[in-house]
Design a protein that fits this description.
The chain contains 13 helices and 9 strands. By secondary structure, it is α/β, with parallel strands linked by helices. The longest helix has 19 residues. The chain binds 5'-deoxyadenosine.
Length: 350
């Protein structure tokens, strides 16, 4: 077997946007700081050549903290009785959009737990009204697993994008993170359905989730290579004290940055957020994410009084730079590392 060093693997990723599972495992598990800097520069170059130094904004509206699922890692799991549950009304959601639009947002991300209260009729009415009021904006939904019919209907009502992290591409690992009622097969089917319908689709996973191996991470990367999503959300796992994973260690920020960079090299055009979880674990996480190839930030547009209740994990950041109303402060931080926030819709470009 010919020995391939990490720099060769990075060059291969840069040039051909692919590496084998073995190469990815080697890279992720043995990359040293010097090689990580080489990887970072290649990822940054790639992002700059596709997007220049533009950073796209998505306004996150967390409209329901109810969830029918019991994902073991998530603070909003239905068995967690200590969570304050809330739902925004249609008018409250529209008010969030109005606030966001005034601030320059051209994408609204409606995210919630899997809450049956928001059935197709109600969700469709919300999407239609946002579409009518803001024809120049993108509407992104993040509502979990629904039927293909439901996805089709919401697309017809005017939604353009859908975020559904696959969480892990390994069946055994998936079953350690989710109850038996949930299946990776169905989740993957949802992602393919969404793509077929015409949504711009975002997959993604947590870095350092309990029981995750380096092989699992390589499988996530291979899965993304097959699915070819338009967006990818990755962030470190962060424990939540009222879940069975309360004592599991948080994900590693450095590893998350390395994965962002690899994803950028494998998918030069992908829309890649520097996530709130990254910014929660490291005060420079957002800027670091950008320097490793991320090109999207998702500030929080939810009503102030509810933000603390959308507690996916411990100490989730929702103020300071995470808050949509502090856009000026965020812009300055982004500018300090050589980038500029733009108010475009930031659609996927082939
Ligand atoms: N730590 C980090 N990310 C989490 N998510 C849910 N729980 C956690 C946690 N404890 C992520 C999942 C989900 C997204 C909305 O938030 O990947 O898809």
């Amino acid at each position: 077997m010919i020995f391939i060093n990490n720099i060769n693997i990075i060059d291969k990723l840069y040039e051909s946007h692919f590496a084998s599972k073995l190469e990815l495992v080697q890279l992720i598990s043995t990359i040293n700081d010097e090689e990580a800097e080489y990887l970072r520069k290649k990822a940054q170059d790639t992002a700059l050549s596709v997007f220049q130094n533009k950073i796209y904004l998505r306004g996150l509206i967390e409209f329901s903290s109810y969830c029918k699922n019991d994902c073991y890692y998530c603070g909003l799991q239905k068995s967690n009785s200590s969570v304050v549950r809330y739902r925004l009304s249609k008018d409250e959601i529209l008010q969030c959009c109005e606030n966001g639009y005034k601030l320059g947002f051209k994408t609204f991300v409606l995210q919630g737990g899997e809450d049956l209260y928001f059935n197709d009729e109600y969700m469709g009415a919300i999407v239609r009204e946002i579409r009518e009021k803001y024809p120049d904006c993108a509407i992104t939904l993040s509502l979990g697993e629904r039927s293909c019919k439901s996805y089709e209907y919401l697309f017809k009502c005017g939604a353009n994008r859908y975020l559904l992290r696959h969480e892990t591409a390994d069946f055994e690992h998936y079953s350690k993170l989710h109850p038996p009622s949930m299946s990776l097969k169905n989740r993957i089917q949802c992602l393919y359905d969404l793509k077929k319908i015409g949504y711009q689709v975002g997959a993604g996973f947590m870095v350092g989730s309990p029981f995750q191996t380096v092989e699992n991470l390589a499988e996530d990367l291979i899965f993304l290579h097959k699915l070819k999503p338009h967006m990818c959300g990755i962030g470190p796992f962060i424990h939540h004290s009222s879940t069975r994973f309360a004592n599991k260690p948080d994900g590693d920020v450095r590893q998350c940055l390395i994965l962002l960079a690899i994803i950028r090299l494998m998918h030069p055009n992908i829309l890649l957020p520097a996530t709130t979880a990254l910014a929660t674990l490291d005060e420079n996480g957002r800027e670091q994410g950008i320097l490793f190839g991320a090109n999207v930030i998702m500030p929080n547009l939810s009503p102030l009084n509810h933000r603390k209740d959308y507690s996916l994990y411990e100490n989730k950041a929702y103020s300071g730079c995470e808050a949509a109303e502090n856009l000026k402060y965020l812009s300055e931080k982004v500018r300090a590392v050589g980038y500029k926030i733009v108010s475009d819709r930031g659609d996927y470009i082939k």
